[in-house]
């Protein structure tokens, strides 16, 4: 796009310059395009641009800048920080380029590709990306927020695995960001959150030699939550890096996607993934089983391609309010607080689950582990509540805030961006970084985007 637009009809001119669709308010497809995956969030833009390629992305960014509009970016619709009100909503889900280089052990991934597609393609070559609990999320968005998945304690965050990004800057320039080119932008995008510093159209990531794992779930009665969680925190103190695990306090919904034996009941669940030699993983879990024999044992050998079965995250869109925070410790008192706040009496806000995930390992050490995000916390707290109405969303948000308050000094004050959502994600952006890193991000934002074109991402203002 040139520096000037036809002031009489800039939208019509934009349509002549992009290959994809341009949808104005009231036009067919506009409202459907504005839906996020989390139905709590709803965009209300003036214009939706459905990009077909990186050139369309650049045109959309230039259009927003030239007309004084803000621009929000969405691929799969996960991880919304701030819904677009007015301005431009740029959809990147059609950017589906995906190439595996088995000799280099890398993947080239377009902005619209889901992590499950990367995993499936890489597994054909005995390789794997640093996949999270849900293969349904967009690979790029997941990575920009850090990406703490089931291989994290062994190989680090997904952000650590990036070799280069292709980025459209807030000025509409298409650039490469890597260690040897635009290194400050490269540093910032690896865990600095999406939608504030540039629009990533593709990335190159490192892959890892993982095909078979030992993982799954061990189920215990809900009333054992305090005992199991406190014992678990001691058990993982010296766990090998090959084990990434969690305890989940789970209220199973009475829906057909839940196994009938579990449906409509509450459980304490020990879940995780071992990515080392399988006999060693079996021995480690047998040690835990001897300490706490489960009621239901669903832990066993898995193809990494079936990793979604560990968390069984929902596939279809739903309305939810999520929260998260890093934990400095997990004591019996912390365990009892989480049990009381999750397994609430009838009529309390519907918390689907609360999770305590073990961190450490490669997240906190190693020369290559230089992506952004908290690195020293031993545990991560994460909770999700079902919110079918705006009133329910407000109630669940208050409940989450009460849980964080009740946890008190056990929280270390930091947070991983991918484990907070919506206004909480913006309000707590600063908590995701060291003070020095946050000020460095703010300085880069001021340099790249002085007019705040990308105003709907994480808060770097």
Describe the model:
The protein is an alpha+beta fold and 461 residues long. It has 3 domains: 14-91, Uridine Diphospho-n-acetylenolpyruvylglucosamine Reductase, domain 2 (2-Layer Sandwich); 98-209, Uridine Diphospho-n-acetylenolpyruvylglucosamine Reductase, domain 3 (2-Layer Sandwich), CATH 3.30.465; 212-432, Vanillyl-alcohol Oxidase, Chain A, domain 3 (3-Layer(aba) Sandwich). The chain is built from 14 helices and 16 strands. The strands form 3 sheets. Strands 13-10-12-11-15-16-14 form a 7-stranded antiparallel β-sheet. Strands 5-6-9-7-8 form a 5-stranded antiparallel β-sheet. Strands 1-2-4-3 form a 4-stranded mixed β-sheet, covered by helices on one side. The chain is globular and about 70 Å long. The protein starts with 9 loop residues before the first helix and ends in a 13-residue tail after the last helix.
């Amino acid at each position: 796009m040139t520096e000037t637009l036809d002031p009489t009809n800039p939208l019509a001119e934009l349509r002549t310059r992009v290959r994809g669709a341009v949808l104005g308010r009231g036009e067919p497809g506009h409202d459907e395009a504005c839906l996020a995956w989390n139905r709590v969030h709803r965009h209300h833009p003036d214009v939706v641009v459905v990009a077909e390629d990186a050139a369309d992305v650049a045109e959309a960014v230039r259009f927003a800048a030239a007309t004084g509009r803000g621009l929000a970016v969405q691929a799969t619709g996960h991880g919304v920080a701030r819904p677009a009100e007015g301005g431009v909503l740029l959809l990147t889900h059609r950017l589906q380029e995906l190439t595996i280089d088995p000799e280099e052990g890398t993947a080239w991934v377009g902005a619209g590709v889901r992590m499950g597609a990367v995993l499936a393609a890489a597994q054909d070559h005995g390789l794997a990306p640093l996949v999270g609990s849900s293969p349904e999320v967009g690979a790029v968005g997941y990575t920009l927020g850090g990406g703490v998945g089931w291989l994290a304690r062994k190989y680090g965050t997904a952000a650590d695995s990036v070799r280069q990004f292709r980025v459209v800057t807030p000025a509409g320039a298409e650039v490469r960001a890597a260690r040897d080119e635009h290194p400050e932008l490269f540093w910032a995008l690896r865990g600095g959150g999406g939608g504030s510093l540039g629009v990533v159209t593709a990335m190159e990531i490192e892959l890892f030699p993982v095909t078979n794992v030992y993982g799954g779930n061990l189920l215990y009665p809900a009333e054992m939550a305090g005992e199991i969680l406190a014992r678990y925190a001691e058990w993982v103190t010296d766990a090998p890096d090959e084990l990434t695990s969690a305890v989940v306090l789970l209220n199973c919904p009475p829906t057909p996607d839940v196994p009938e034996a579990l449906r409509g009941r509450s459980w304490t669940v020990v879940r995780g993934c071992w990515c080392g030699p399988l006999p060693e993983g079996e021995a480690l879990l047998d040690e835990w089983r001897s300490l706490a024999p489960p009621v239901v044992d669903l832990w066993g050998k898995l193809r990494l391609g079936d990793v979604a079965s560990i968390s069984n995250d929902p596939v279809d869109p739903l309305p939810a309010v999520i929260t998260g925070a890093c934990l400095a410790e997990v004591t019996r008192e912390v365990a009892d607080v989480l049990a009381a706040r999750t397994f609430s009496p009838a009529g309390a806000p519907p918390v689907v689950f609360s999770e305590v995930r073990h961190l450490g390992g490669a997240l906190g050490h190693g020369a290559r582990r230089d992506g952004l995000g908290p690195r020293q916390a031993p545990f991560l707290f994460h909770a999700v509540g079902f919110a079918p109405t705006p009133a329910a969303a407000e109630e669940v948000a208050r409940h989450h805030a009460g849980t964080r308050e009740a946890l008190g000094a056990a929280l270390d004050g930091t947070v991983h961006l991918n484990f907070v959502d919506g206004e909480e994600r913006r309000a707590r952006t600063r908590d995701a970084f060291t003070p020095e890193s946050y000020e460095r991000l703010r300085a880069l934002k001021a340099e790249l985007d002085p007019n705040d074109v990308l105003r709907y991402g994480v808060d770097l203002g």
